[in-house]
Fold:
Amino acid sequence: VALVGSLDKWSKDQMAAWHLRGVQKGLDALLIILYLLCFILTLACTPLEDVMQSADLRSSEWYRWELGESFESSFRSWKVWHIFRCLFGLLGWVVASLETRNYLHNAPNKPLHDIYQKMFHQPQAQA
Structure:
């Protein structure tokens, strides 16, 4: 969902004529890359997570068994991929929070927004 949202943001910025302006283009590209890496690592982690879920359904104490070198090797790789997946997701959240533009006030539809504000958000009279 985050990857789709970052791609959607990129396309909306392009339609609003903000695309490729200043530092924001780098942040948008970095956001897409971080979430894409997070998605790829999720795909890499899923097979072993399915095995662990299946083992847990059969016996909740599966992790105490002798699991074999093949599983241990896969588990070590999974730990590394999972840590990077979490880090990329967290960094993506930080980059997304750096967005400070207010779309309503900077977009080409500002005159429409102003009319909407006048029609529906009238200041109340002081009594």
